[in-house]
């Protein structure tokens, strides 16, 4: 802490102490102000005592309400936890199904390629035998 900050804090402390002293002197010297402070303090004490008495006499409704609220919160948290668990399970299931779809699509693609190669072989053999493409048995029968 530098000396300037220390001086500022010291000044603030001195001002606060001075304010309290001046306020105390004013209260001691001014009977009207002293009466107002005492009356206000008495009212605050009375209201606080009334509140404490009311809560003491009606403790059960407060406790019941707190218990009910706590139970509702627990129930909501349990339901939320179950929902999150179900969402996680659904996400895992969806991930598994998506992977199965991708695998099936790859297998289908591979199967189509294999079938395409098998179909190309007879056509290739037919063209190698001197028969032009498109003049095979099927085309001759369709005319």
From TrEMBL:
Transmembrane regions listed in the UniProt entry: 12-29
Classification via SUPFAM superfamilies: Methyl-accepting chemotaxis protein (MCP) signaling domain
Basic and acidic residues: compositionally biased ranges: 108-123
Region listing for Disordered, in residue ranges: 108-143
Keywords: Membrane, Transmembrane, Transmembrane helix
Keyword Membrane assigned: yes
Highest taxon of source: Bacteria
Protein name per UniProt: Methyl-accepting chemotaxis protein
